[in-house]
């Protein structure tokens, strides 16, 4: 009997030790909050978006480009070397013969430096993109094929300048939208005309001669009122 009691006591002691050594379950891990991105409103620009480049004037494709040289003065002993010919018509412009008063202007009156042609076509393309209902821009005389004098012997009043490929005459836009030369100041759309003047100044023109009756504005000594310019503005680049 004593022996049985000893065995039972040993068994109970072993159970108590085993219970004491049983591992306590580890607490469940606390879930880590998942960061969520704040939604970006549609149309909001991001730094990864490509920068939109200005569109290339479509009329560039029709031109035989070459590097030109302007020699001498615009009004004295001027010459044009490897001049670029402006086509008679384009998507953004038409040419106007100031002697015969018709479209197009004759080829030998449509030469300028590559810089002049690029500047003019870029300005009028941007102008037309802004005013998509406006008529094409009219262009009259540039320089002769190889530059040089462009006086009365070449028709009309002639030009004191236009000798070295850096000058161009641009018709003012008409109120009625007709692609033709304005015959009096009242036919000129002065809002569109002022916008053209502003754009040529911004493009780096060193002179813009305008008709005194039109009251067009611009930087002093750059935008200059001058007689015989009531139907067109005269742009000169470097």
Characteristics of this structure?
238 residues, alpha/beta, Muramoyl-pentapeptide Carboxypeptidase, domain 2, four-stranded mixed sheet, two-stranded antiparallel sheet, 3 helices, disordered N terminus, Peptidase_M74, metalloprotease, protease, metal ion binding
Low-confidence stretches: 1-25, 43-52
Structural class: alpha/beta
Listing every helix as H and every strand as E from the N terminus to the C terminus, the arrangement reads HEEEEEHEEHEEE
Q: Largest beta sheet, briefly?
A: 4 strands, mixed
Question: What fold name stands as the CATH topology?
Answer: Muramoyl-pentapeptide Carboxypeptidase, domain 2
- If strands are numbered along the chain, what order do they take across the biggest sheet? 7-10-8-9
CATH architecture: 2-Layer Sandwich
Shape: globular
Q: How much helix is in the residues?
A: 10-25%
Quantity of strands, as a count? 10
What average pLDDT do the residues reach?
86
- The N- and C-terminal alpha carbons lie at a distance of 127 Å
Strand content: 5-15%
- Our Rg estimate from Cα atoms comes to 40 Å
The number of helices is 3
Instruction: Please give the domain count.
Output: 1
The CATH C-level class name: Alpha Beta
Q: Can you walk through the features of this model?
A:
The protein starts with a helix and ends with a strand. A 4-stranded mixed beta sheet has the order 7-10-8-9, covered by helices on one side. A two-stranded antiparallel sheet has the order 1-2. The protein has a two-stranded antiparallel sheet with strand order 3-5. The chain has a single domain, classed as Muramoyl-pentapeptide Carboxypeptidase, domain 2. A hairpin with a 7-residue loop joins strand 1 and strand 2. Helices cover 21% and strands 14% of the residues. It has helices at 2-21, 114-130, 190-202, and strands at 69-71, 79-81, 84-85, 93-95, 111-112, 137-139, 167-171, 207-210, 223-225, 232-236. By secondary structure, the protein is α/β, with parallel strands linked by helices. This is Penicillin-insensitive murein endopeptidase. GO terms for molecular function: metal ion binding; metallopeptidase activity; serine-type endopeptidase activity. Residues 1-20 form the signal peptide. Keywords: Hydrolase, Metal-binding, Metalloprotease, Periplasm, Protease, Signal, Zinc. One of its GO terms (cellular component) is outer membrane-bounded periplasmic space.
